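Hello K.,

You asked for the raw outputs rather than the summary table, so here they are, unedited. I folded two proteins back to back in the same session to keep the settings identical. This is the first:
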Amino acid sequence: MTGPGSEPLRVAIAALLDAVISSLAGIYDVLNGASMMGLVDPDRPPLRIDIVGERPDPLNLASGVQAEVQAAVEDVGECDIVIVPSVLLPAADWQKGRHSKLTDWSMRMHVQGARICSACSGVFLLTETGQFDGRDATVHFGYAKAFAKPSGQRRRVIRSIAGRNGSIRSSASASALPPER
């Protein structure tokens, strides 16, 4: 959290066509919770959170529900944390290169020192940056094979709630745990 006189942490939540509204909005609401409940000084919030996408327009997400993109990636030159929400992939098929502006931007933010995080299947966007090549990650069990597909690099899915590799994080979402047998 921020201390007296410090700037709020800048958090960017990536909005992409494949995103799931519950993940995107849920992350936004949880991170804004203390501010929305009046538990922090409104003039000094601990976090400044933006939903970032290719254009600052309404965006129809995977289920057809709209999300308001607040800032275009070219207008966000720095941030402290980038979060990619869960995505919904028909037949577990990630189409590489479909979100190149977001992929390139997230890599630039990481090079500048931002912590990079994914909620569950949001990790697919981050795989295009090479940040998960040879690394472990947490992803929905339904996407495990697609995630581990050869990209020239080994990737291993770990069966846990969260994965951590330096400044890169991946986490399970509410439906990511495999069914009980």
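The second followed immediately with the same parameters:
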Amino acid sequence: MTRILQTEIKTGERLVATDITDLTFFPIGTILQFSGSEYSRLISARTADNKVIWTLCNGTAVNGISVPNLVDKFLRGAASSGATGGGAAVLTEANLPAHTHSISGTASSAGGHTHTYEKAVRITPSDTDNYGGMRDLSYETKNTSTAGAHTHVVSGTATANSVHTAASFDIVPKYYTVVYIIKVA
């Protein structure tokens, strides 16, 4: 395996143990992820001229190299690096497609029932008064017959056009946190 790594080193220098333990054979800009505290040994490693080799991806420039801030971010593949995006989303009515709600059903009671109404009744017939006999009316409260059991069917479509209050919602999938480090020397 050492021979394979030696042939991959472009500078022509020999690969030594510290090249492996400090991961110096990776090119500058390589980003690695670590779980646990092993990364702390790597970020304390230095070159012969005391330059930092690996550093946390926390947005702090090191050795004149701009380091991306990957704290609380997911990595996403792209044709070029450096673009950022994402974050909390706010669902608004504009996010919802035009839609309708269909409603249908039958009245739950199909049995007979009555309706109440008032019936005008003439008390004394009078063809000689000036009101056409309407002055001598009284009213009686009557109920319809209970015969004629029937149902009522309801159906229709309701268009959704009510005003909604926009609220942010979390779109982050379940995750496991790791530490990202980048080679800077």
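The two ends are 24 Å apart (CA to CA).

Happy to rerun anything if the numbers look odd on your end.

Regards,
P.
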